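Reviewer 2 asked us to include a model.

Predict the structure of this chain.
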Amino acid sequence: MAHMATTTQPALTVGFDLDMTLIDSRPGIHACYRALSERTGTYIDADLAVTRLGPPLAEELVNWFPAERIEEMADLYRSMYPTIAIAATPAMAGAREAIDAVRAAGGRAIVVTAKYEPNARLHLEHLGIRPDELVGDLWAEGKAPALREHGAGVYVGDHTGDVRGARTAEALSVAVATGPCSAEELATAGADVVLADLLEFPAWLAEYDRSDSYRPARA
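Predicted model (structure tokens):
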């Protein structure tokens, strides 16, 4: 008697961005930019800088330092960061609950971020957020290889760059409007789902049917 072949879905893996998705990094980064300004004698508008978090550090530093000093300033900033920014940075509302919801669904939670990985790890350890994997130093479309490698079917982020990373990886893009990009900008960029914040994520995940053709076709 022939047996029907059965197929099983791979285990759920959800990727999360870090800055302004899992952590409110504005207070710590603001303080670090002020310290960098004092250390170097170079004016940095820290209030402005924290309104455009998401892209790699170098993309902000070019607004304040000549090109030939960017690598030096990035190294200095990163060396100062642990003592200035870690304790000043809280978790975003719903961050722990979002990770817990993935685990309760039998899935894995990973963090893929543009932040310098050692400092990203310090944030997570300080806040007691323990993802299954952490990959740093990746931005926008550059996040896609890591998302694919770890089998992430969903990627959650706050920036249009995160939407592009999810789309490139052919993962479902879940956007939270807690960072510099509005809900409208995130939707226009191609987010499949837009939530106000991570507090809405557990309920959304409970309704998410991975077997459904929920994700629109990619252009």
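The radius of gyration is 18 Å. The CA atoms of residues 184 and 194 lie 9 Å apart. We have added this to the supplementary material.
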